[in-house]
Design a protein that fits this description.
- The structure holds two protein chains of two kinds.
- Helices cover 8% and strands 28% of the residues of chain A.
- By secondary structure, chain A is mostly beta strands.
- In chain A, a hairpin with a 5-residue loop joins strand 13 and strand 14.
- Chain B is mainly α.
- In chain B, 61% of the residues lie in helices and 0% in strands.
- Chain B starts with a helix and ends in a 22-residue tail after the last helix.
- The chains are: A mainly beta, B mainly alpha.
- At the A-B interface, helix 6, strand 39 and strand 58 of A face helix 1, helix 2 and helix 3 of B.
């Protein structure tokens, strides 16, 4: 016998229920020295009873025989645990040789074999035990009593050291292997979480390499160790009403399970944990914030729509907690819903990492961008006291607005883009209905899907259509661009151009009718509704719960048609008390748009509105009659926008602008509607500074600062015709105007308000006489319309310009606060007093020319001339001063005001050669591609022009005199008769001719003959009147006033006749001869021969007002 | 600096696309030019004596601007 190998065991074997024989190859001395053992899962061993088997040793008679088999009487039961056949030698020694007795070799060999077997057994045990390296000394553990409850450690020298287990901390955060810090959230299902561990922390985010730490979260062992079923159903019952509303329960349950997957996780060993953060971050639902939207609107990053939506739902509906949106830009593939408006109200407070300025990734904060413009980026529905804070919502309109420059008043709009056309703020790259009435592309909406889903009406003949109303005709869909009445015949518009005229309606083509399966031309696409709502109304519009008390704080709205859209749907009810605090609205068409008429107490606090078409509107979207109901706009800034507000008067309650500021504004706004204001409740502006530098030739000039807000509009006018106090009030405001202001609002109250017109010649810039006179005539370019009935409180400071120096005159002008009688409209500001520093009045200025002096458009025969792109001229031809008394008497600087639009024209000059009077538009024009055109159409047939004389410095009425013209006639010596008279003569005209005695005048005129007061002293022929002397001005034929009471040498002549250069220094009065009639001489010759025109004189104050 | 100018500067600083940079630079330059003129004019205006300093009765406290009856109608020409 020998021991030919060093094996001590065979296996492992995995009993399969049929195998009964398990061989082994190690050397065994006897059958009982072989064991069959099972190694359990916890590493313990179970020795299978030897009574269940027998052991057969290999026995061929060879010394090398080794191994054998374990032979079970019955095959062991199937087991996945490893089993081994192993050596189990006897350590007793039973061989004994006696003296003198036989020394048998087999016995000796057996002894040696048994020794070798034991050696091998022990070697196996030693190899599996703890050992120290060669050269070191082993150690002895303390006694059992001493080491009880301690842990075995090594000291600084590697010697064993027993320590109380209470001090053992293990590696930080990992005391138990897969314990507190278990790894990434996404891998939760792969972790084994030991029994007894009740809380775990996930380490980070979905995506490797984008760790920010904000995604780490605590989870606690859920008492419910299965999918929530009853709990979810119970919670949803409170949201979606009855669980039995049509949606199959299995579908709903699957939806619930999907929702749970974001915040309930199951470990690899089957343990359920639930999120345990009082204010979770969205990152805990898997939003890494790795998204982006570049200038070309190319999207990047992870689509986290499902994650964010689950997060919002979790916070609102299940945990009912505040949620935080982690930093970075989050890209969603469709719009998010904060509440669904079904089954009940919803609250919720969400806070980002801060307003990321304009969504720019260089700034810290949180931004949400959306792949599609078919949905709002976020819609809030059924809200009660919800709030979003520190989040930027960025759409895709920025590129279009920048490239077209229609939003930048200092830059000329790109050709083809009209910044003053609402519908021109239309990005061709966006959906056709981006600015439709009921579905404007918005950063955020409130109640977007409330009410019945909008539908498109078929076009009808002879039908009145309002702004933005949408119709279908000839397979196309159109939105009303300019309200009017459709054509009386035909089938309606069919063109696919941006502008389509139909009767008096102008349409914008939106797109081909798609059957409205998606309703994309009139409505948003159907909203997302999770199946767990268990409501058959899912994926549809509806009459949802109405919200109120929404707050947006420190949010940024950029790059959509509407930044924040309240109620764009067909059901306008409620949603009160909206508050926006410290928010930015930029690069949108509209900043805030309200469609509901129960928006009580709108509050805009410390917000910034810039680079917009209109900051605040309530008549543009939805039912177009939103209300602000005592809206308060406080310490807000406005800039580079067309309108601060565009409203419907039906809101009927005051809107207060307090301590607001603007730059680059084009206009305060426009007011429309069918309901009159309640007296005394019009907009109020307190301590505001409005700078209208956006009124310039790059963009154009508004006709009124509050367009459509004027007497004569029956819908908007004051409700009290006898002096209602409903006009807007400007209290302690400063108004800076760069450009001729044109008309201000009707019935406005100015209380301690300062108005300054930058454009009146500051810095010594030479300005034409007509312009200078115009500015002085209209209080620095300002026309205050309808100061009538403002019995008190009109306190207005404005600056007039010294016409000699071109700088502001050191004067203070107080606008009289008295009643303007029936000068109801369109008169210049009543300049009452001009005073010196000494306190001595320069002069008490008289009242202006007259009551509104109406010039019939019909008799004036005006026409527009577009001779050049720099000016819009109004031309009166064929019926001018020589024949129309209406047009006599006003000269350069006089003002014509159109009765319906408020358009202002400055009279520039009279062209004698063509008998044509030219006036230049000072407002109501726009610039498109560098070419001026009318902003609002002006009828040249209906209505009137109202004449305002420029000469506020003149006496009670402007002085007029007849400018004696050259006349040709024939006379004979000794006769008083003149024949063949050409030109115009009238009785009293002085005649000057070599053969006519001095002092001779016209006695009578009859056709082309006349009689002189003296006989001719010789033959008379040719011209008989010198053109350099102006006479007959002493007695005005109409007014009967004499010039000597008010004219002085040095006064300027302002005449319809163009006298050399149009500068005030030319044509001064140099000789004044009192008398009846008296005469005057000016310092230079007239360069035109005129007949019977009236002359005006611009009187210099004394002392000079410099 | 006007707040619009600073806004435009910030937007320019954020831009990375060459086309966007060029456009934003253009609108900024246009705006700065306008704002400078405006600021100068405002400065001149503000340097003028205050209305109250001139008259002392801007708020009508001195009674210089007394209440007046309706302006009598002036006969039109």
């Amino acid at each position: 016998m020998t021991v030919p190998n060093t094996l001590t065991q065979s296996g492992p074997y995995y009993p399969n229920g049929s195998t009964a024989i398990f061989p082994f190859t190690f050397k065994a001395a006897a059958g009982p020295e072989v064991q069959f053992v099972r190694v359990n899962a916890d590493a313990s061993e179970t020795i299978i009873s030897s009574s269940l088997y027998t052991v057969t040793l290999t026995d061929t008679g060879s010394p090398a025989d080794t191994g054998g088999s374990v032979n079970f009487f019955s095959a062991p039961a199937t087991s996945a645990l490893p089993h081994y056949v192993r050596s189990n030698p006897v350590f007793t020694q039973s061989i004994s040789f006696e003296d003198e007795r036989a020394f048998l070799a087999p016995v000796m060999t057996e002894g040696l074999d048994r020794g070798a077997i034991r050696d091998l057994y022990l070697l196996n045990q030693v190899n599996r035990s703890v050992r120290v390296p060669t050269g070191e000394t082993g150690f002895i553990l303390p006694s059992a009593a001493a080491r009880a409850n301690d842990v075995f450690t090594f000291d600084a020298y590697g010697a064993p050291s027993m320590q109380p287990k209470s001090i053992f901390k293990g590696d930080k955060g990992d005391p138990g292997g897969n314990a507190l810090a278990i790894g990434a959230w996404r891998d939760f299902e792969t972790f084994t979480i030991p029994v007894g561990l009740d809380m775990v922390i996930t380490t980070d985010t979905l995506a490797a390499g984008s760790a920010t730490g904000t995604q780490s979260a605590r989870y606690v062992l859920d008492p419910e160790q299965t999918q929530y079923t009853a709990k979810m159903q119970a919670f949803m019952t409170g949201v979606g009403g009855s669980v039995d509303q049509g949606t199959p329960l299995a579908t709903a349950q699957a939806s619930m399970d999907a929702l749970q997957s974001y915040w309930r996780r199951k470990s690899a060993n089957g343990r359920w944990f639930t999120l345990a953060e009082p204010e979770p971050w969205s990152g805990m639902f898997g939003t890494p914030g790795d998204g982006g939207q570049d200038y070309n609107n190319v999207m990047s990053g992870t689509d986290v729509w499902a994650n964010l939506q689950a997060f919002i739902d979790y916070c609102c509906y299940f945990r009912k907690c505040k949620g935080r949106i982690n930093p970075g830009t989050h890209r969603v593939s469709r719009g998010l819903q904060h509440g669904y408006g079904q089954g009940g109200y919803v609250g919720g407070v969400f806070e980002g990492a801060g307003q990321m300025y304009a969504g720019g990734s260089a700034f810290p904060g949180t931004t949400i961008v959306c792949d599609t413009d078919l949905d709002p980026i976020l819609n809030v529905s059924g809200d009660r006291d919800i709030m979003w804070e520190g989040v930027s919502f960025v759409g895709k309109l920025g590129k279009f607005l920048l490239e077209s420059t229609i939003a930048y008043p200092s830059s000329a709009p790109t050709a083809g883009y009209d910044s003053l056309d609402q519908t021109a703020w239309f990005d061709p790259a966006r959906r056709a209905s981006q600015d439709s009435q009921y579905s404007p592309y918005a950063c955020v909406t409130i109640g977007a899907y409330d009410g019945a889903k909008p539908s498109s009406g078929l076009w009808n003949q002879s039908t009145a259509y309002g702004f933005r109303q949408t119709i279908r005709a000839n397979g196309n869909v159109y939105s009303c661009k300019i309200a009017g009445t459709s054509a009386a015949s035909g089938t309606g518009p069919s063109a696919t151009t941006p502008t389509v005229v139909d009767g008096t309606v102008t349409w914008r083509y939106l797109g081909a009718w798609d059957g409205f399966d998606g309703g994309l031309y009139v409505a948003y696409r159907n909203p997302y509704r999770p199946a767990w709502l268990m409501n058959p109304a899912s994926e549809a519009y509806g009459n949802f719960y109405y919200g109120s008390f929404a707050t947006f704080r420190n949010c940024y709205f950029r790059g959509a048609i509407v930044g924040l859209m309240m109620k764009p749907g067909t059901n306008p009810s409620q949603d009160d008390f909206l508050s926006c605090e410290r928010c930015n609205f930029t690069e949108c068409s509209f900043g805030f748009s309200a469609g509901n008429h129960q928006l009580r107490s709108l509050n805009m606090q410390s917000c910034n509105f810039g680079v917009l078409q209109c900051a605040i509107t309530n008549n543009t979207h939805g039912v177009q009659s939103g209300s602000f109901k005592a809206g308060h706009i406080n310490t807000c800034g406005f800039g580079a926008s067309v309108d601060v507000f565009r409203t419907d008067s039906s809101y009927g309650e005051p809107m207060v602008f307090n301590a607001c500021y603007s730059e680059g504004q084009f206009r305060l706004g426009q007011v429309f509607g069918s309901t009159a204001y309640v007296a005394g409740l019009s907009p109020v502006f307190i301590a505001c500074e409005w700078s209208f530098s956006g009124v310039n030739d790059a963009r154009g000039r508004a006709p009124r600062q509050l367009y459509n807000y004027f007497d004569g509009n029956p819908n908007i006018a004051e409700t009290s015709a006898s002096g209602g106090a409903g006009g807007p009030v400007f209290l302690n405001c400063r108004i800076n105007v760069d450009g001729v202001f044109g008309c201000f609002v009707e019935g406005a109250k100015f209380i301690n308000t300062q108005i300054y017109n930058y454009d009146s010649g500051a810095g010594g810039v030479a300005i034409p006489l007509y312009q200078a006179a115009f500015n002085n005539a209209t209080a620095g370019g300002l026309i205050l319309t309808g100061l009538e009935y403002r019995v008190e409180d009109q306190r207005l400071k404005f600056l007039q310009w010294n016409l000699n120096t071109g700088i502001g005159a050191r004067t203070c002008v107080t606008v009289s606060g008295f009643r303007f009688s029936d000068r109801s409209v369109c008169i210049p500001a009543m300049v009452k007093t001009v005073r010196a520093l000494s306190g001595v009045n320069y002069e008490e200025l008289p009242v202006p020319h007259a009551d509104p002096y109406l010039i019939s458009k019909v008799s004036a025969v005006p026409s527009f001339v577009s001779a050049d792109a720099t000016e819009i001229k109004l031309v009166f031809t064929g019926s001018t001063q020589t024949t129309s008394a209406d047009l006599q008497g006003f000269g350069p600087g006089s003002v014509l005001l159109e009765s319906t639009t408020g358009m202002v024209w400055a009279v520039r000059y009279y062209d004698d050669a063509t008998d044509t009077l030219y006036a230049v538009a000072r407002n109501n024009y726009k610039t498109v591609g560098g070419v001026k055109s009318l902003l609002f159409p002006v009828s040249l047939v209906t209505g009137n022009f109202m004449l305002l004389h420029a000469r506020n410095y003149t006496p009670a009425t402007p002085l007029f005199g007849d400018f004696q013209a050259a006349v040709t006639a024939t006379g004979t010596n000794g006769s008083p008769n003149l024949t063949a008279v050409t030109g115009s003569l009238k009785p009293g005209d002085p005649l000057t001719h070599a053969n006519i005695p001095a002092g001779t005048t016209v006695l009578s005129v009859n056709g082309n003959t006349a009689v002189m007061t003296a006989n001719a002293t010789g033959a008379v022929s040719g011209s008989i009147t010198a053109a350099t002397t102006i006479s007959n001005v002493a007695t005005d034929s109409v007014l009967g006033s004499t010039i000597t009471t008010s004219l002085a040498v040095g006064d300027y002549l302002v005449s319809p006749v163009e006298i050399n250069a149009l500068a005030p220094q030319t044509a001064k009065l140099t000789t004044l001869t009192a008398g009846a009639p008296g005469s005057i001489v000016i310092d230079q010759n007239a360069n035109k021969t005129r007949s019977r025109v009236r002359l005006g004189f611009f009187r210099r104050p004394t002392p000079a007002n410099v | 600096m006007s707040f619009l100018t600073s806004h435009m500067e910030a937007m320019l600083a954020l831009a990375t696309d060459p086309e966007e940079i060029e456009l934003r630079r253009r609108v900024l330059e246009d705006h700065v030019a306008m704002a400078e003129v405006e600021a100068q004019r405002r400065k001149e205006f503000d340097s003028l004596p205050d209305a109250t300093a001139l008259t002392g009765d801007f708020d009508n406290a001195s009674g210089v601007v007394e209440a007046e009856p309706d302006v009598p109608a002036v006969q039109a020409e």
